Amino acid sequence: MSSGCPRAALHQSEPHPDPYSVYARMRADHGPVVPVELGSGVHGWLVTDYATLISWSRDTTTFSHDPRLWRDFTEGRVGPDSPLLPMLAPRTSALYVDGVEHQRYRRVITDSLGGVDTEHLRRITGRYADRLIDEFCARGRAELLDEYARMLPLLVMNDLFGFDEDQGMRFVTAMRNLWLGVDAERSNAEAERVLSEVVTARHRQPGDDLTTRMIRHRAALSDEEVIMQLLLVTAAANEPTANLIDAALRAVLTGPSGPGTAAPSDASLTELLDGVLWRDAPITNFPALYPRVDVPLDDGRVIEAGSPVLMAFAAANHFFARENAERMEETANRAHVAWGAGPHRCPAIDEASTVAIIAVRVLLTRLPGLRLAVPPEQLRWRLSGLSWVPVRLPVEFAPQAPLPHGPEEAAPLPADPPAGASEPRQQASGGLSSLSNFLVRLLRGS
Predict the structure, then answer these.
(1) Whether pLDDT at 443 is above 60
(2) Parallel, antiparallel, or unpaired: how do β-strands 309-312 and 141-143 relate?
(3) Contact indicator for 311, 285 with CB cutoff of 8 Å
């Protein structure tokens, strides 16, 4: 049973201009380990201290990632319709298990990602980035979060996993709703259904993609296990990578020198990204650990066994960097926990960094004079139990002509597949597919 001590509410009903000020108040009221309400009647704890987060993430004796230890869930106090369940309920995937089982699943993920050619990833990321920019560059204004930062990782993942357009459209809708907590149970079921179709298709027709590599891996996962690893990787790759792109662009646009006039190098953007990962990490209050035994805190409070303990990566980084600003300015430092800590640390760091760096470089190269369309203090974030997400990133720039394309690339965009079509059409070479057009409509809310 969860403790009855006063708890901080993680959910905010209105978008907020400064999430870190909310967490600073929590720390002032409760200390760096905060008792929180994750959702209606669902209690847990939030770790915002850098050293504690690292220590507990590495302590696999005291703490587990396995939600089967979540006492309120196993004893029926979390309703089946809770929007937290798609992210916190037990799953047969690498993030939700420990020990040998975790190592087996993680090896499948790392080996499959290792088969992604770096030059191919750079090439398709740059290509999709250019095509997205072509859609708005002549306007002289854009909403970069929905028109660019959120769309680019989805398109790249669609390519790497071998989705066809119909599957991509349905999966994008489901994952977007899942992150927003909209009809979470149905959205989760639809996402799993799409991945099941993809796995079935790749059994019949293998390809050079992540799905095929997971199916063929020597660990011999069942189809259900393959689906769970695919769901984990796609969920981790999409919204967090979009948040990283958004944070990097904000750092450039609100920095003392602005975006500058020269095209940025990958080296300078890598340095920029390192700073962003310290100050504004893309993953906020996830994943959760579950203590196997009661854990006493220094102030006399006790975290009871089976209570979810959220890892506040962004807050832990931010407050540590702020408290040690003078020391950190003296040397480059990549000891942040933006990618997690311990054996469950993110296995796709290089891939996420590559997509973010190319996204920023292509945009700044294509749009000289890029600037925020509103004062920085007007930007807002939505705060929920497991995350905070930016609301929008409006910009202005000198209008630019779309890039010229060859005759094949200039062909009309393919139409959406007709209802009931058995074989969705493939995208035209070099152009934005109907999936891309669908994403524009989806993310604009039309």
Answers:
(1) no
(2) unpaired
(3) yes
Quick check: 226 pLDDT over 70? Answer: yes
Question: Which pLDDT belongs to residue 426?
Answer: 38
Residue 416 DSSP one-character state: P
Give residue 399's identity as a one-letter amino acid code.
Answer: P
The widest CA-to-CA distance across the chain, in whole angstroms, is: 71
158 domain-assigned:
yes
DSSP string over 272-298 = HHHHHHHHS-S--EEEEEEESS-EE-T
DSSP 263: P
CA distance 253 to 257: 8
62 located within any domain: yes
Write phi, then psi, for 30 (nearest 5 degrees): -125, -10
Instruction: Look at 236-240, 338-342, 440-444 and tell me which has the smallest mean pLDDT.
Output: 440-444
Beta strands in 292-343 (DSSP E): 295-296, 302-303, 309-312
DSSP conformational letter for 205:
S
pLDDT of 260 reads: 62
What is the distance in angstroms between the CA of the first residue and the CA of the last residue of the chain? 44
Q: Are 233 and 348 contacting, i.e. CB atoms less than 8 angstroms apart?
A: yes
State the sign of the Cα–Cα–Cα–Cα dihedral 290, 294, 299, 300: positive
**For helices 151-161 and 349-366, what crossing angle results, to 10°?**
130
Q: Are 339 and 318 in contact (CB under 8 A)?
A: no
Q: Across all residues in the chain, what is the average pLDDT?
A: 87
The pLDDT value given to residue 236: 79
The pLDDT score that the predictor gives to residue 167 is 86
Query: How far is residue 360's CA from residue 276's CA, in Å, rounded to a whole number?
Result: 13
**Structural domain of residue 132, as residue ranges?**
8-444
Pairing of strands 42-47, 309-312: parallel
| Residue-level length of the chain | 446
pLDDT digits (tens, 9 = 90+) for 143-197: 999 899 988 998 898 889 998 878 887 887 787 677 666 787 888 889 889 999 9
Structure-token pair, residue 205: 């027709």
How many structural domains is the chain composed of? 1
Alpha helices by DSSP H, listed for 218-265, are 223-253
The predicted model gives 224-231 an average pLDDT of 94
- Is residue 1 one of the residues assigned to a domain? no
Task: Say how far residue 193 (Cα) sits from the centre of its chain.
Answer: 21
For residue 200, the number of C-alpha atoms closer than 13 Å in the C-beta half-sphere is: 7
For residues 363 and 249, is the Cβ–Cβ distance under 8 A? yes
pTM: 0.88
31 φ/ψ sector (left φ>0, alpha ψ -120 to 50, else beta): left
User: What's the token pair of residue 26?
Assistant: 């929590």
Which CATH number belongs to the domain containing residue 298 in this structure?
1.10.630.10
Asked if residues 45 and 308 have their Cβ atoms less than 8 Å apart, the reply is yes
